[in-house]
Design goal:
The chain has about 190 residues and is of the alpha+beta class. The chain has helices at about 10-20, 40-55, 110-120, 170-175, 180-190; strands at about 25-30, 30-35, 65, 70-75, 75-80, 80-85, 95, 100-105, 130-135, 140-145, 150-155, 160-165, 170. Strands 3-6-8-9-10-11 form a 6-stranded mixed beta sheet, with helices on both faces. A 3-stranded mixed beta sheet has the order 5-4-7, with no helix packed on it. A two-stranded antiparallel ribbon has the order 1-2.
């Protein structure tokens, strides 16, 4: 599946191609962009966030998805690291339209795009209430909230984050469980001293 700026790929062709593709691709402005593999810390952070949200949302209509489920934003498709959908959004098996929360784990190669372009696009989704950015190389989480007019709030080890749209509270140290970066190691040394 190859696209070029002169001939953008259609949504239908993109979705058909993704069903057959060996690697994941995002569709941005009609262009297909291959996704790189993720680091150990990236995987741990995504899995920890998924686990915390999924466990606390048991018994609710909310469903938690990890990086293999796409979200459609306008004519673009992205693979968020984690997203939660609370309303009926079962029309499509391979993508969702109405997430309440989207989580992206930042890396050097994606940080700028996730903090700017993606953030601005995601904020156009009517159902979205919170956009969460998790640093993997340090212990810092930035949460953009519709309730706060998309102003960001920062959280660090020792803090708790309340996701008001879900009625869920998660400790930052649980999100960083088993993650190996200098902030986490220093935090753990301080606790054992």
């Amino acid at each position: 599946m190859i696209s070029n700026p002169v001939n953008p790929i259609s949504e239908q062709d993109y979705l058909q191609g993704e069903l057959l593709a060996a690697t994941k691709h995002e569709l941005i402005n009609g262009q297909v962009c291959a996704m790189a593999g993720a680091s150990e810390n990236h995987n741990l952070l995504s899995a920890n966030m998924l686990t915390e949200l999924k466990n606390q949302l048991k018994g609710t209509p909310c469903r938690t998805f990890i990086a293999d489920m796409k979200v459609k934003v306008g004519h673009d498709f992205y693979y968020p690291d984690v997203m939660v959908v609370c309303q009926q959004d079962n029309v499509h098996n391979y993508y969702k339209n109405a997430p309440v929360i989207i989580v992206e784990v930042l890396s050097k190669s994606t940080r700028r795009f996730d903090k700017t372009n993606k953030r601005l696009q995601y904020q156009q989704i009517p159902s979205l209430e919170e956009y969460v950015l998790i640093e993997q190389d340090s212990a810092e989480i930035e949460v953009f909230s519709r309730q706060n007019h998309w102003q960001s709030a920062y959280y660090y080890l020792g803090d708790e984050i309340t996701f008001t749209s879900l009625g869920v509270t998660v400790r930052v140290e649980d999100i960083y469980y088993q993650v190996n970066n200098e902030d986490v190691l220093e935090f753990l040394r301080g606790r054992s001293a």
